[in-house]
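Notes for week 9. Today we move from apo structures to complexes. The key idea is that a small molecule is not decoration. When we ask for a structure prediction with S-adenosylmethionine present, the ligand SMILES becomes part of the input, just like the chain. The input block below holds both the sequence and the ligand string. Read it once before you look at the output, and try to guess where the molecule might sit.
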Amino acid sequence: MRMRKKKNLTARMEACSRYGISDPASLRGSWRSLCPQAREVHVEVGCGKGRFTAGTAQAHPDVLLIAIEKVPDAMVVAMERCRDAGLTNVFFVDGDAAALPDYFAPGEVDRLYINFCDPWPKSNQARRRLTHGNFLQLYRRILKSGGEIHFKTDNDKLFAWSLEEIPQFGFALSEVTTDLHAQGPVGVMTDYEAKFYQDGKNINRCVAALTEAVLPFPTDLHRVKSRWMDAFALSISPEELGRQVFAAGGHLWNVFQLRPCLAGEDARQALAQLDISDAFVFWEDGPVQPLGDTPVPDLAEGFYLVDRDFSWTYAQTDSRHAFFCRRG
Ligand SMILES: C[S@@+](CC[C@H](N)C(=O)[O-])C[C@H]1O[C@@H](n2cnc3c(N)ncnc32)[C@H](O)[C@@H]1O
């Protein structure tokens, strides 16, 4: 639901300026300096109007809580709540979850809260879900080892999908429930949650702990292709993908006609400059395997190379055209 524009937003923000962090990147690696006695740093993504933010900061005065929200009209309400409660261990960033690694250093965050994020129900919107692998990879970059994501949602389909998605990115699930409040209210509720609870709607919750230091690489070809598309076709609309990629023979390498990339000798040179010992190779009809010591020129034509994080890819078509690009 789109929020109505708040009157006097600037004046209201200024009245809570003690709580706002206007340049979060400048605190990267030193957030604890805001609250030196804090035991842990917790981050809430998409805090909305902040019922949970204020309640959680109040309940845990020994934790520094940073709330990120991309809609200032909602965030100002959350800031006012914290100010009115006189809290000193909570701060707000008017920003986007996609920028988390710009705000926080590796391992700086002990816990991440994702509460009632937008479900983006259509399959071609999956990449926008805050529990999508692209976001999980960002969370991996800022959470400490063993750090946790605490996820709640009213959306049963999003929850079921997330339970499949999350473990593929090196997180171990626990405390999984599809009816958190079955025996009565548990924990601090968010604004959305309080409404759903009143309406008798079940609330899903799980905890996901970062356990695997190395990102697992999928072995299933379907998953590899879908991760490849998520990483390298992000900027291309579903309509364009349908017309130009899938309808044109179905080769993934058609993506390179639609986004910036290096081609030919430039692509080969870009590859030659990388350490590819931990790269993977796949063919569109399978298999998927670690590249290991296989020299690239010895590979049969029409293959793709990709690193474990899907941060770069190299493709050679069956007519020996070469392409290289980085994620995004
Ligand atoms: C459905 S509301 C839930 C608000 C609150 N968590 C609650 O449960 O009451 C989702 C909130 O997440 C915010 N949001 C969505 N995507 C975001 C992103 N990428 N970065 C930061 N905030 C985001 C939206 O602006 C919105 O306020």
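Residues 48 and 107 are 25 Å apart (CA to CA).
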